[in-house]
Structures are given as structure tokens and as C-alpha cells.
Amino acid sequence: MSPSLVLAALWGVAANVIALLPSRDYHWRAAYVLIALGIPILGYVTWQNGPWVGLIVLVAGMSVLRWPVIYLGRWVRARAGR
């Protein structure tokens, strides 16, 4: 397994452990940190393993951080509707 996929797997494990912990702000601060760490890891995975594997890792990350993606979609739809 390539080092980039190991990092992506560790990111996924860390995201799931963070989700198990209690949080007062509904994990939004942790989500920002995970996004900031996940984007370079996604680029590294795509660079090392190709675009199809990068797309699979992107979809996996979006399934873990689904609420930021949902809010981004709502924001984009609201901006496009004006």
C-alpha cells in the first residue's frame, strides 16, 4: 500500500475517533481541521495513485464530512438563485 493511501486511511480513522468524542460545537472545529488536512492528502493520493483512486478517496471523505458538503451545496444553490 502506498504511503498516500496509508495517510488517507489514518485520516479516516482519526475522523471516526473524533466523531465518537463528545463536542459542544457539534464537531465543526474538528471538521475544519479535517478538511484542512484532507485536501493535501487527497492531492497526494491523486498524484501518487491516479485520478480514479483520488476520486474514490474524495467520495469517502465526503461521506465522512457530509454536513459541510450539504451546507456548501445549499450555499451554492442560494448564490446561484440570485
- Taken together, the total number of domains comes to 1
The gross shape turns out to be flat
Mean pLDDT score: 95
In helices, the fraction of residues equals over 70%
- C-alpha termini separation: 47 Å
| Helix and strand element order | HHHH
Tell me the number of strands: 0
Protein structure class: mainly alpha
Count the helices. How many?
Answer: 4
**Radius of gyration from CA coordinates:** 14 Å
Largest sheet: none
Strand content: under 5%
Characterization of the model:
It is a single chain. This protein has one domain. The chain has 4 helices and no strands. α2 packs antiparallel against α3. The radius of gyration is 14 Å and the shape is flat. It starts with a helix and ends with a helix. 15% of the residues are buried.
